[in-house]
Prior knowledge:
Oligomer: single chain
Amino acid sequence: VNFFLLLDGFEVSEEWFAPGRDGIMPAVFLIFIAMIYFVLMFIAVAIVLDTHATIDRSAKEDPDRKNPMIVFIYTYYKMMLGVSLVQVEAEENMKQDELSIPLELLPGVVRRKFIEKKRKMQRIANESFAGMEIYPLEYDDDAK
């Protein structure tokens, strides 16, 4: 049936099949359509089989796996409430000073780029928010 659907999209001239005409033209056309049909069919079958094999294996690995749609809806609901579901256990037990790197310990290029970016952001804040201080000046003094 799909073979005829492929033929439906191409206009076949009746002159090709007229008596006394060269028979190679319709034969080449039909062989081309058959090749395209089989190549596309085999690609589609390969995709379906590969997907089926992958899904079957993942279901066997984790039988307690939740439905992805339910997980998405639950996550979206929590996001709308403003509750974050992401928790990094390594950061929960760390002190505040362990969560940042002192500016003087950074390499020179990184330090300069950070200070340039900080000054640019402060300049934008001064222009846009009437002098609101985003970055304290204490880092500026340390870098000089």
